[in-house]
Amino acid sequence: MRRNSRDTRNQHRINERIRVPEVRLVGDNVEEGIYPTREAKRIAEEQELDLVEIAPMAKPPVCRIIDYQKFVYQQKKRQKEQRAKAVKVTVKEIRFGPQTDDHDYNFKLRHAINFLNDGAKVKAYVFFRGRSILFKEQGEVLLLRFANDLEEYARVEHMPIMEGKRMSIMLSPKKAGGSKK
User: What's the topology of domain 8-83?
Assistant: First the structure.
């Protein structure tokens, strides 16, 4: 039988699948303590609930008497909430040539300001084609000027670095990490 990592049924042993001589019972509706497994199963059946192994590595394993379907539902719901709360960082790329003129530069600068205001990171890079690789200094000056012009909107994550045929700089928004007034 293959185990799917998302399948929560295989994460916990319940009822008849618990095959240890004794277990530690915890929970609201039982007297906590160590019980023989048969006795714990009988208590669960009397309450019309399931005996669920919560901590299998403990000595003896820890079990709880609960409605297993409800337990699985609550776990999935909690995981979904955690994924929703996770911060989703988007990275927008802006491409320059080593000899980008002022109009194009200003156009891309305005786009970068909008991206940063929306909370996205900006990766600006200068792409060198063929012999334009000779203008590395010009590309670096362009990226530093770009970072300087965006100083009030962003902070530099890393200075210009060469990655193959492109030189890039990463900028992240200031107000996302800063305090709100």
Answer: Ubiquitin-like (UB roll) (3.10.20)
